[in-house]
Give the backbone structure.
Amino acid sequence: MSNLPGNEGKSKYVRETFNSIAKRYDLINTLMTLGLDKSWRRLVVKLSELKEGGTGLDVCCGTGMLTIEQARAAGPAGKITGLDFSENMIEVAQQNIRDFALKENIWFVRGDATDLPFENSFFDCATVGWGLRNVPNVFKAVQEMTRVVKPGGKVISLDMAQPTAPVFREFYWLCFDRVIPAVGNLLSGNKKAYKYFYSSARGFMRQKELADLFAQAGLA
Ligand SMILES: C[S@@+](CC[C@H](N)C(=O)[O-])C[C@H]1O[C@@H](n2cnc3c(N)ncnc32)[C@H](O)[C@@H]1O
């Protein structure tokens, strides 16, 4: 377990936010992505080229849905670790794998994405789903993922892109700003958390900026 960044305002706010919505997270995530979240996670794992018997890391694993996809790809000889700093999200993740055939191959660790408690070059791949935009120092998180992945291994971030097409862009942000907080409020009673999703998505870097940052961290 690594040190938790309790003194950083954003980290504290983010941890409390996810702790407060953990029980409803999976349902609302699926509604927000119109059910596409599962296929996106499968695509990420396919792109990660994680093989049978492989060793994978899922940073900001939340309720463990991407971690589970990694475990499916790595099979019975695989070793998969999910890391998150929200105790309630990890608790739901533990519940989510209770009846999963490969649960013995999954470890959930509480820790901070910017200070990974793993050795250099330990994993075959690292993924992060909708996580980087929550981290105060995105570069440090990407550097850490790069450090713990073996040379030649994949580091993959899954997130919402910033839309550019004029009419679609307005509709997209309207949904994020109005519809999602209303639905989130209805299902979890926590409108503020879903307003945070809007601001974190809106304020997150564009694809090109993120790709440049990956390159600066040493990724090809
Ligand atoms: C939107 S959820 C994503 C969950 C999951 N990856 C998925 O596929 O649905 C973001 C997660 O990132 C975690 N998180 C945010 N900042 C973090 C940090 N600095 N270190 C570890 N976890 C963090 C939150 O606790 C939350 O569970």
In short: The radius of gyration is 17 Å. The chain has eight helices and five strands. Confidence is low (pLDDT under 50) at residues 1-7. Strands lie at 55-59, 79-84, 106-110, 123-129, 149-158.
